């Protein structure tokens, strides 16, 4: 925009204008630099693992480039050592799961496609010097078409997309270059071994230096989403029923609590990506081998269903037609109690889930919210608002009805969390409390194996589903 | 599971068991094969462009591998010709936008990083044979750390993620291999020219053979989402108010209409990806250069906001506590009319938007739904349900209140669609109708430039925002 000429600028000479532009340049440059520095600092502070990851990539690359500097190592691989460097750049990802998935895909695909490429080359040489290119080109075409189409299968895409790509790549490289270079087998072998070295270097650096486990991220993300809903319910009661009294003071505090749930609405795709990567990860820390990652998606979906209802609740906070405060006051106590108990249930669940403790302590709050819900229902039945305008009653009544539905949602989340806790053999938090509440099938089963620390059969069955 | 031994199997000899297993094998193999064939057929039928894309990849690879077969071409590039093959495999994506983005990223990054790598090599040779590896390793480390961290910036990630990766790759390749190979400049040049050839081959095949424009997909996806909501509203009135009368017959037809909106809820990330790719695409067909793709995201967000409310409406279809049919009957006419008019408005908008026609014909339906809404409000004010139980009234009342809110949502969508139609200079569909309804600022402006077919300044201004 600075290069456009305004009427004033046109009156001054081009040299003056140029000088002005040049004078402003250092300032602009400074501003821009400061902004970049600020953003960089924020990115690093938000998640310091990003800085660590960048250093890890530098470290891995420097390590692998040693192949070039040390003569004994270089003599072993020759120019192909470059493939090791290339592999590190491409394979080393932020999380262990992604790196393992890519590394495994790359190694397996190179191995299989390399072998197939050598086979295709041998077969093609039988056709003579003239027939060879035609035969090879046909093979390349067929393999490329089949593998590219396979990448559209959703299951293949989720786990083996990169492998299929590398398969096409390696098959082409090996079979096509066989036309000019007779040492195809040597080439395929070199390519595979350098990729093996590169992948292993990436994996070692990724796992040994401050590993980022994506499974842990998924676990935390699911827990945090529950907490966000919990925060909403904690703030909602006060915000809705005291909206006219002290609007400005309380809303400042509650605003962030009330808006936190919005990110839950759109968290589906990121959770699915994380679950796909997490399945590549070996057992680590509290997460055993074959940890039921798929069940996290179920909890995530139920949390999102609850978030959709929260979105509806949130609309009533900013509704044009509001129920008069005196009418709202009549259901205030029960509604606030339901909201608070829902908040406590979610936060309790989130807190024990985060620590990977198997407990049904949240059920106390769910039961308590159900009690309040019954009171609320009775209150609604007593027609205590007979003289009021129905149009004005609707918002408050809808809020009440939504709160009743949300209890069911939270109960479903609680059941899913318990299922996961059982399948993943979380350590038991309240074995003494369990026998007191034998009101569900799951609890009945939970009682039976509350003594066994690792109910492995359960894990196997549920994962097999 | 087949290898597990059941008690019966244990009684028979291992040979018998082996025979049984072998006998079952062909059947199992047939079943599996049939399933794969069925799935493949479905994938191809759902989107025949997938088959075309697979054939395109095969074609492009076969074309590029010609470099190896023809001596004059091979002499020009030598073994580096492999990089062209590699580039085609990696760059050729399903859509033109993705291919252009990747190709551009790869070419630019290779060019810049290749130059920088040569520079780094020259600088390092000044340090002597012993100092060179240390200096190069330092450079590689610094570049890798900086570029990897830059990939975390959201804006960089959206557009230049692949470029940053290739930057690290090329810089490493060129600077490191300079230690063993003195012809660094030649190598960098070869690498760049082969990548240029590979990228161009991919682009030519991608654009010239049945191109898939991701911008068109985004356009269609946004339109389809509107239609899905329209379908819901079309079916909702009948389903909710006649639920008890002819539940089984009508629900079969309406079921798919009523469930279609669910995919809208989670469409955010795919729309964002499409918009990112679409920005790489040149003008094509009705989509001009600098088509305002960002505004599609705005419409998408508003449609999703509406879908959240639809989710709330849908809950009332399967609510446990239902308002008795006779009470529902009192607001049936108005609610059905609002729902139908909303459906018509959405479908009208979707239909003209799909054809890229600029018209405000949907406003007739919005106005008509507003009229019905006013009637509904009056009806709700008359307290015509005084004797009924409030708890039973709430569901129907909430449905009515949600329908009122949805009108506002649809109005917002309509405004966003008009904004886009103006910015993208859709052709005018009802210039004669416009002057009759000068009730908004946008319409006032629309009148002024209704004669100009291409109001380019608008495009520029809105894109610059």
TrEMBL record, chains A, B:
It is found in: Membrane. It comes from the Eukaryota. InterPro entries: ALMT. It comes from Gossypium raimondii. One of its GO terms (cellular component) is membrane. It is a multi-pass membrane protein. One of its GO terms (biological process) is malate transport. Keywords: Ion channel, Ion transport, Membrane, Transmembrane, Transmembrane helix, Transport. Belongs to the aromatic acid exporter (TC 2.A.85) family. This is Aluminum-activated malate transporter. The chain crosses the membrane at residues 51-70, 82-101, 108-128, 134-153, 160-180, 192-214.
